[in-house]
């Protein structure tokens, strides 16, 4: 199957990672506001994460893309879809996620890019369901999940990558099925974003 490696929305480009993204990504991952509900990363750990995300896109043709806002900033964070980690109790499957630098919050960028990523997941990848998860107190991310039409599971789960006893270990899980997403698209008629084939 021919899959996408780049997506454009009306304001954003979701693309493969570049070397120039490392410095702003490290700054993002070291920002206490951004990492309020995440485990903070050193610059070296941030670089390693960028490498893993880029490798995932190379492997699958899709993943957690670097996001740029043309005319605004060459890198604002990441948004995308990727295979679920095998350590998670609700896998296998596809997850959607995002992480944007604080100066770009409140502009609708996460929802815009995530909506385009859902389309790739359902129309190009062929996922039956896509999930998202975050620490229980992360109301900002949970609001994005709500705007995407995702539904929260009852209760919470302990994220295996977060140390036992850590306050961020309890997470909430959200889901959206392809049929639900399709009804949502048919209802609002909005289909933002263009998908470009792999080079």
- What spatial form do the alpha-carbon principal axes imply? globular
Range of strand content: 25-35%
Radius of gyration: 16 Å
Low-confidence runs = none
CATH superfamily: Gcn5-related N-acetyltransferase (GNAT)
Q: Give the helix tally.
A: 5
First CA to last CA: what distance? 14 Å
CATH class: Alpha Beta
Order of helices and strands: EEHHEEEHEHEEEHE
> What is the tally of beta strands?
10
CATH architecture: 3-Layer(aba) Sandwich
Helix amount: 25-40%
What would your notes on this structure say?
With 199 residues, this protein is of the alpha+beta class. The chain has one domain: Aminopeptidase. It contains 5 helices and 10 strands. Strands 1, 2, 3, 4, 5, 6, 7, 8, 9 and 10 form a 10-stranded mixed β-sheet that branches. Helix 1 (22-29) crosses helix 2 (43-60). The two termini are 14 Å apart. The model has no long low-confidence stretch (mean pLDDT 92).
């Amino acid at each position: 199957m021919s899959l996408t490696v780049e997506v454009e929305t009306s304001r954003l480009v979701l693309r493969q990672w570049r070397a120039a993204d490392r410095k702003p990504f490290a700054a993002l991952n070291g920002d206490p506001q951004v990492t309020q509900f995440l485990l903070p990363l050193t610059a070296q750990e941030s670089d390693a994460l960028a490498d893993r995300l880029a490798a995932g896109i190379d492997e699958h043709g899709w993943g957690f893309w670097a996001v740029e806002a043309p005319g605004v900033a060459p890198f604002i964070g990441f948004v995308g879809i990727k295979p679920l980690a095998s350590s998670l109790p609700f896998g296998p499957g596809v997850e959607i996620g995002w992480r944007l630098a604080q100066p770009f919050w409140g502009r609708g960028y996460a929802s815009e890019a995530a909506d385009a990523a859902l389309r790739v997941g359902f129309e190009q990848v062929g996922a039956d369901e896509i999930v998202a998860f975050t620490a229980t107190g992360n109301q900002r991310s949970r609001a994005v999940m709500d705007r995407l039409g995702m539904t929260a599971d009852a209760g919470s789960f302990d994220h295996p990558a977060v140390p036992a006893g850590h306050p961020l270990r309890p997470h909430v899980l959200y889901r959206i099925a392809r049929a639900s997403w399709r009804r949502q698209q048919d209802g609002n008629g909005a289909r933002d974003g263009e998908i470009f084939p792999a080079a």
